[in-house]
From TrEMBL:
<dbReference type="Pfam" id="PF13450">
    <property type="entry name" value="NAD_binding_8"/>
</dbReference>
<keyword id="KW-0274">FAD</keyword>
<dbReference type="InterPro" id="IPR015899">
    <property type="entry name" value="UDP-GalPyranose_mutase_C"/>
</dbReference>
<dbReference type="GO" id="GO:0008767">
    <property type="term" value="F:UDP-galactopyranose mutase activity"/>
</dbReference>
<comment type="similarity">
    <text>Belongs to the UDP-galactopyranose/dTDP-fucopyranose mutase family.</text>
</comment>
<keyword id="KW-0413">Isomerase</keyword>
<dbReference type="GO" id="GO:0005829">
    <property type="term" value="C:cytosol"/>
</dbReference>
<dbReference type="GO" id="GO:0050660">
    <property type="term" value="F:flavin adenine dinucleotide binding"/>
</dbReference>
<protein>
    <submittedName>
        <fullName>UDP-galactopyranose mutase</fullName>
        <ecNumber>5.4.99.9</ecNumber>
    </submittedName>
</protein>
<dbReference type="InterPro" id="IPR004379">
    <property type="entry name" value="UDP-GALP_mutase"/>
</dbReference>
<dbReference type="Pfam" id="PF03275">
    <property type="entry name" value="GLF"/>
</dbReference>
<keyword id="KW-0285">Flavoprotein</keyword>
<feature type="domain" description="UDP-galactopyranose mutase C-terminal">
    <location>
        <begin position="166"/>
        <end position="385"/>
    </location>
</feature>
Length: 412
């Protein structure tokens, strides 16, 4: 079934049992479950002019399928998620590979045995690999901190090499930091893989939807009980009713088209936007994407090249590697990290998580606690970075919770 679209001005809110804000994986999976499992009529409010959230893909002028909000590669260890998504798309068996451009030489990322050979030469690398295996075992992932904790200075040298040539400048660009500001706890977790496995992810299930993500979302949302209103912003159609006029007064009800809406409201947008940033904005790191099309079969040697010591952009992705598309043209995308305040790129990509921002987020979330039919869900509403599989599994669990509450209105 095709997606049923409507103009928000034309709908009667009394025709709907549930409202979902946002049509990324969080919103779309919740909407599908509530429509299919609980036979609820679900209204989706989406502020963009398309469905599929940040997974949205489209064909560019050269006929290449590109991702508009950053490259998305599906990977999961959850059989539940993989089985669920298989209902809405066939999948190609893509395994992502990433190389670091190290002054014009390519190193596999995460750094592995082959990277060490390229960086240190065969003889020294053989010695380092022998020491790594003797210390940690073969086929293990070890962190820079674990390497630095060893007495052998050559293992610390490996850690220093990876830190300076693969991690530091990339991270500085990504987050707009000076070297001193780079968080040591993140550095500690950077891995070295004592292996020849050069796949970026090692999850059981990996791949790409055969006809693209947008088609997957069309199948997910193509249900007779789901209606989608595009270009509709929650804050412009919700009337928030608070317990009092105090700044921290909890939300008591949400009115839509002059009706108190008492069915479940699944909200997957940023909470600060809903409350018109009354406690200040929740900050994000943003991105600017620059696309280039070439008359070549392939422009890069693999799906993504990270620029870890040079360039202003962090990485380039070539979509044909991801999608398996063939043809004589190719499109690549360069990612330039930007401030969220940059007027050109005010899209929230990566939550900037620290104690202050977490506290501000909690303040927003507490406003919604008292409203029993309000469910914040997904990477924006929870102010976290989540991979797609985590969002799908959370949306399935939230839908079960909502249905349980509908069946047991008196349960705590
Ligand atoms: P979103 O996809 O952002 O969907 C939220 C939707 O809500 C959007 O459509 C938005 O327009 C809408 N919305 C927001 N506010 C409002 C409002 N006020 N009113 C109405 N609508 C609203 N994960 C992976 O597993 N693999 C990857 O390779 C991967 N690559 C990534 C690359 C980048 C650059 C980034 C930033 C993330 C990547 N992710 C990846 C994570 C992935 O994007 C998220 O897991 C996914 O987007 C979460 O879905 P969501 O529904 O929570 O949010």
């Amino acid at each position: 079934m095709t997606v049923r679209y409507a103009d928000f001005r034309d709908i009667a809110i009394t025709d709907f049992d549930a409202v979902v804000v946002g049509s990324g994986f969080a919103g779309a999976v919740a909407a599908r479950e509530l429509a299919e499992q609980a036979a609820l009529n679900v209204l989706i409010i989406e502020k963009r002019d398309h469905i599929a959230g940040n997974m949205y893909d489209e064909y560019d002028a050269a006929g290449i399928l590109v991702h508009r909000y950053g490259p998305h590669i599906f990977h999961t260890n959850s059989q539940e998620v993989f089985d669920y998504l298989n209902r809405f798309s066939a999948w190609s068996a893509y395994q992502h590979r990433v190389l670091a451009d190290w002054y014009g030489t390519y190193l596999p990322v995460p750094v592995n045995k082959s990277s060490l050979e390229i960086a240190f030469g065969d003889e020294k690398a053989a010695r380092l690999i022998e020491k790594l295996i003797a210390t940690f075992g073969d086929e293990r992932k070890v962190t820079l901190n674990e390497l630095r904790a060893q007495a052998d200075p050559e293992l610390a040298e490996v850690a220093d090499f990876v830190y300076e040539n693969v991690f530091l400048y990339y991270t500085q660009k990504q987050w707009g930091l000076t070297p001193e500001e780079v968080d040591p706890s993140v550095t500690a977790r950077v891995p070295v893989f004592i292996s020849r496995d050069d796949r970026y992810f090692q999850d059981t299930y990996q791949g790409m939807p055969e006809e693209g993500y947008t088609r997957l979302f069309e199948n997910l949302l193509g249900h007779e009980r789901i209606t989608v209103c595009l270009e509709t912003e929650a804050e412009s159609v919700f009337e928030l009713v608070f317990e009092s006029g105090a700044e921290d007064a909890p939300l008591q009800a949400i009115r839509i088209k002059d009706e108190d809406f008492e069915g479940p409201i699944v909200y997957t947008g940023p909470l600060d936007e809903l409350f018109l940033a009354r406690f200040g904005r929740l900050p994000y790191r943003s991105l600017d994407f620059v696309y280039e099309t070439y008359d070549e079969n392939y422009h890069l040697p693999c799906g993504t090249v990270n620029y870890t010591v040079t360039e202003d952009y962090t990485r380039i992705t070539e979509f044909k590697w991801l999608t398996g598309q063939t043809g004589s043209k190719t499109t690549i995308m360069k990612e330039y990290p930007r401030s969220y305040d940059d007027p050109a790129t005010q899209i929230p990509y990566y939550a900037i998580i620290d104690d202050d921002n977490d506290a501000r987020y909690e303040r927003y979330r507490r406003l919604t606690d008292a409203l029993p039919n309000f469910y914040p869900l997904g990477r924006l509403a929870q102010y976290r970075y989540f991979n797609m599989d985590k969002v799908v599994v959370d949306a399935l669990a939230a839908s079960r919770r909502i249905m349980f509450r509908l069946d047991h209105p008196d349960a705590p």
